[in-house]
């Protein structure tokens, strides 16, 4: 997938609620909901309504397949997967999205720090991955509210993934 133009990215960011923008800022997840500030906790957000909003097991599987293709085609981050066992990657990503969204799955992969150690990922790499994941969710009709709730749960992983 080709990188989105700056104007398209800005436009997409304004289309989404401010949770998505908070993913890129790093430390805290803050969202603006109906004009008020709300601090979001991953545990408070993880209920089966996110899993259901993703389309259950079938939806998560489709999103993971599309997102993985997006990651690989993205010239900004595709190279970071050059030595990755993609079948195992997709399996673990699916488990993780299922578990974190409130689905009936167990995550069997490594912790985020151990899985990304030595990759020297930067904030821009993390942001590109988030954009590609959002594009995959858009492709499969996941409502913005569900996307933002999932991204709010994933955002704290930034601290363990970004090492440069």
Task: Give a written overview of the molecule.
By secondary structure, the protein is mainly alpha-helical. It has one domain (6-161): Globin-like. The chain is built from ten helices and two strands; from the N terminus they run ααββαααααααα. The chain has a two-stranded antiparallel sheet with strand order 1-2. Strand 1 and strand 2 form a beta hairpin. Helix 4 crosses helix 5, helix 4 packs across helix 9 and helix 5 (56-73) crosses helix 6 (86-100).
CATH class: Mainly Alpha
The largest pleated sheet is described as:
2 strands, antiparallel
List segments where confidence is low: pLDDT < 50 over at least 5 consecutive residues. Answer: 5-11, 13-45
The structural domain count equals: 1
- CATH fold-level topology: Globin-like
Whole-Å distance between the termini? 24 Å
Helix content bin: 55-70%
The number of helical runs is 10
